[in-house]
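agent: user wants the full assembly modeled, not chains individually. Plan: 1) parse entity lines 2) check alphabet per entity 3) run joint structure prediction 4) return tokens. Steps 1-2 passed, two entities, 723 residues total. Proceeding.
--- entities ---
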Amino acid sequence: MLAPSLFGLAAFLVLPILVVLWLSFQSWDLLSPITPVGGANYADVLSDPTFYNSLAVTLFFVVIVIPVQTALGMIAASLLTRGLPGSLFFRTIYILPWVCAPLALGIVWRWILAPSDGLLNDLIGSRIEWLADPALALPSVAAVVVWSNVGYITLFFMAGLLNIPQHILDAASIDGAGPIATFFRIKLPLLRPTTFFVLVTSIISVFQLFDQIYALTGGGPFVVTDAGTYGRTDVVASRIYSEAFATFDLGRAAVMAVVLLVLLVVLTIGQQLYFGKRTTYDLS
Amino acid sequence: MAQRFLSFAAVIAASALALTGCAAGDAEDEKTTVSFRLWDSTVASAYEESFAAFEKENPDIDVKVNIVGWGDYWTKLRTDVAGKTMDDLFWVNNSYFGAYADSGNLVNIDSALGKDAREGWQDSVVDQFTRDDTLWGVPQLYDAGVAVYYNKDLIEAAGVTPEALADLSWSPDPAADTYLPVAKSLTRDSAGVPATDPAFNGTAAQYGTNIAYDTQAITLPFIGSNGGVYQIGDSFAFSDPKTVEAFQYLVSAINTAKVAPSAADTNTNSDFSRDAFLQGKMAMFQSGLYNLKNVADGAQFDWGVAPMPKGPAGRVTVTNGVVVAGNAASDKQDAIAEVLTWLGSEEGNSYLGKTGAAVPAVESAQADYFDYWEGKGVSVDPFFDVVEGAPPIPAPTGANYGKGFEAFDPIFQEIFKGTLDPKVGLKQAEDAANAAISG
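--- prediction returned ---
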């Protein structure tokens, strides 16, 4: 009875990966016939400074976005599981950005962050080029990404927190643990499986960040040097898109996709090893 | 995506019908549906009327119009050609058709319609789309030249007459430049102080002009009217000293004189200036006939059209045409030839002019266009006089133009923002773009 789901897995997951692997050894502009070029695409991409720029930009996003959204998600979850009035309302509000299409949200945020007549600049009463200033573009986009992801992460931490048996918390409080000690000594360790899941999925999703970049900056602003033009928000996925669908160099795009895949696999195995060594408490 | 899913669903539904023997009558089967793709929704409604007339005469052919927005047009075209899901007929422009002609994806018009077919078509458009002595599309519309739409209320408030506007000239030499001083007097901050006044706070709430990174309406005409070049053959020649001068003038008008919206506003939003003009927040809006209907429908104020400013080398515009190309991979070549013949005929092409949407490229159909705008009290002469006055600067072209564009586009964005010196940046842009088209 596995056959039907295996078919889906093969057709929509394994097959495309194999095709991309094969394409990474070909030259193709979508018009001319596909011609094999051996490892030329790899040599080309791996010596291209703009690709390393994209890797660095992606890493910056991970470093900014992951800690902030995980911490905010955890704080929001702690507040929402306390049974305070209005919790249900805020639960719904937090999840809304995650329910909406990222591209549409990106366009709305572009209006909000627009230099002239943008909502944010009108509110603060000064003209700041949030998306065009080389120093501000990356943090601005990162803030939008965090904003869209926090609700989703909160949801998982809430589930994790509600799963912690009340008797453990009661025991801690009888032993004299205050709320801070309870959080760091009891709740955080018990949340480890949730944290692992949240980190793995959100790191992967930030590595694949594309929609918001496409809608907000298109990879810019740009730093122009004699060696190449570097986009300050030109993450790997956005570079892959440009190579494939703006300059129509499918071979180079495929190489970048393969490199991204390898990176993500290595990263995920690393996380697995790290969390695997830590104790996981069985709460059943 | 939804469209593809629908067509997929339609195929499934159709085959289910066939299998169960419930296929519709023979007459229905013989009807051929030909699909037609373009990027302009204003012109699309004119085409709908044209095809309604065509279908009356040709009941066996059904033409379906699909609009794909400009932002995605060239990406979708390429992927749909590769995926064999391309429409049977589609618009192409001068900058992008080369790659498709060279790879054999376009119907050869000379053999499909005969060499004589080109007789009645606008010569400049026929020439633009002839590659290796072969014509690759049926001319549809002709862009004529660039001119300046102006807001009468705003220029009057600044004491500028339409006659004075018609007489402006720009020059890299400030002593000979009458354009920038007028643009400054038309620029106001939020307190209404003009940019000519030392009390001007530096942030325009009303813009004098729409100088920006806009290749067709601004960059090329300014380069041309300074005697500069954009391309030599297919390769890019941005480092030409006259081209550099033109860029320096434009960049300083935006960032120093502040008579135009900032590049941060216009680089990633090509409609910014048009919207500002329509909202009554911009005095001079240099553009083409492609915005005439937008302006006529959208402007809630008195407006007029003046010639573009004269440069050191005179008034030099760019002129462009659009053709409809046939998909060589389609299996409906007979129907495609019939629709192409219709679109290249006086009657078929005339709907574009009758609705005022665009200048028909079939010359005998152009009178309808002039009649339409004359009836509205609008003189379109400035758009045509400029083309006749001096030879236009050639429109961007080349089999690999798209690749070159991707290389220089980010650099041009930074030049216009003022973060990159025009002279240095243009050399880098030229090198990067030429490397991209040769690679």
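agent: reporting back. The mean pLDDT of chain A is 89. Residues 48-277 of chain A form a domain with the MetI-like fold fold (CATH 1.10.3720.10).
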